[in-house]
Amino acid sequence: MNTMNRPFLEIQSLAKRYPQRDGKPGAPVFEDVSFGIGRGEFVCVIGHSGCGKTTILNILAGIDHASDGIVIMDGREIAGPSLERGVVFQSHALLPWLTALQNVEFGVRSRWPDYSREQIRMHSERYLAMVGLGHALHKKPSELSGGMKQRVGIARAFAIQPKMLLLDEPFGALDALTRGTIQDELRAIVNETQQTVFMITHDVDEAILLSDRILLMSAGPYARIADTVTVDLPRDRTRASLHHEPRYYDIRNHLVDFLVDKAHDKGSSPNKEILAS
Ligand SMILES: Nc1ncnc2c1ncn2[C@@H]1O[C@H](COP(=O)(O)OP(=O)(O)OP(=O)(O)O)[C@@H](O)[C@H]1O
């Protein structure tokens, strides 16, 4: 195959089986999951609870192993955790004894061991300012709100300038107002940095706002990517502008219909591009 035409991230025939109590392999949670993500593309995955979204993200992060299949990023197989991939979990996972700034500096120092203290501080401050936390650099996690803690987690992941950002429902625990503000910020940062992102969400509006493409997973066991939706809306969209886009309602209805009905269908047409019609 011509490597020039390969996507930045390639997932081929991924499957995950857990052993049963008797030690024999159980039914696959998901199987035959194949997709690609282009450099600079933002891809969301949605699907019912338990279909294996977090497992797939953990495999991409290198902290879990697939039973079958391979993942290739930038021409190399993923074989373990790496600073090439930044992960933001559902809960912020900050080190509680460090300030916001020190939490970000910790990752930056690992990524660039040759940086001077001054370089590390300036670089970290820049990313905290980007998520609107320039005023809270010296606060400890216990002094920050849930939304602010999550922003530190996002700044920490972006600051190491990973080749790929993996987000597992990063806004799930936030109130609606904070969630909306951070969604707009993330959209703006991603536009500016052209970061490649894979994100799990349960929120169809969040998926439409943020992504270029949405993967829809059928329910497990034997979950698959049942459908793919291309979000052909302007890249500079915001929450306020989204509702004025005529295509928004078509996409939203399609996603909601899928989650209500089709997520349970087995063998729905793979990778149907609804917007190609
Ligand atoms: N260690 C384990 N042993 C056996 N089964 C497991 C194990 N870890 C996860 N599973 C099962 O794998 C399936 C997929 O879990 P996963 O967390 O990836 O799903 P998910 O789609 O991310 O769910 P949610 O949306 O609820 O976060 C679930 O049915 C879960 O019970």
From TrEMBL:
Keywords: ATP-binding, Cell membrane, Membrane, Nucleotide-binding, Transport. Residues 9-244 form the ABC transporter domain. This is Cyanate ABC transporter, ATP-binding protein. The keyword Repeat does not apply. It holds the Pfam family ABC_tran. NCBIfam families: ntrCD. GO terms for cellular component: plasma membrane.
